[in-house]
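REQUEST ID: PR-0412
SUBMITTED BY: lab tech R.K.
PRIORITY: routine
TASK: structure prediction, single protein chain
INPUT:
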Amino acid sequence: CMIVQKGIIIIAILLLTVVKAYHPAYSFKDDSQKAVERYYGQLSGKVTQDTFRELDKSIKELEQQQDNIKKDAEKNGSDDVSQQIAYISQRIDVIKQVEEYAQKLSVREQEEGIKAYIIPQEPYESFLEPTTSIISNNLLSILSIFFLMLLVSGVWPYENQKNMVHQLKASLKGRRQLQRSKLFCCVVSAILVWGICSSYQIYAVIHEGRLLENIHAPVQNLVLMSDFPYKISICQFLILFYGIRAAVLISTSFLIYFISTYAKKTEQSIVLNFSFIVLPAAVSIMGKIDMGYFSLLKAVRLVQLIGGGQWAIAIVLLAGMAAVIGSSYNLRTRT
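STATUS: complete
OUTPUT:
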């Protein structure tokens, strides 16, 4: 059905749009954060006593360097060393910030049993952070919803337009086969959209040279995930993250399919689904208005999974199941 309904063209346009959405613009707010990230890279790995010894050694070396500059300035009668002193002070502050973070992780390991790792945050933030990632999760989510709507909106009305529904229902396998084939089209469409968006997002991170280090470490070692309630590794979390996104998109496709059962033409289906599925999500982004229960955006971009609140995801998954039941009922009663 996808070939007949120009599905391949829609998928191609989605791919081009996602590629165009890529921008290597992820950056930290200031030089201090860049310096902190550099130390995370240097110290990457399990937090041990050697970690703290190395940090203390670096601080003492910088303090000694600072003292030497001051002594040389006094000896030579030079007072033009303020910038040098300030620069070294900034580096000391950065190391102390890293040391404080490592100490926090170490204390949590003792109290909660979550192994402490220092991990470069940038690679993970560059695709988990909702708004400033390499490919904005907000943009990726609205693209997923929009193109999924285009793919699935015609799944129901197509046979109506060709006057084929009654013939198909009267066939040997009847309504069940018709419903299964349509739901299969929904699932395939959702998986294609999910695959394109997710795979290119990960590719963009790797293309930037941001290797995912210590992927076996507990996910709570990521600043974004420090309050995540379940003790799983980063690798397990990423599988969960993208797996739930696939499930949410499949449920979204069922919702679009259900809404399309109230339309006799593909154009009507697109208008209905745009109004009920795409528009609330778009308003949430562009108008900065929280549409709450009326928007799929929170569930698709999985901010709730990162933030620890899963209600939006659960609602969409349950709604998808209800949509399957509702569409089966409509197939029996409306045609």
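NOTES: Strands lie at 45-46, 117-118.
REVIEWED BY: pending
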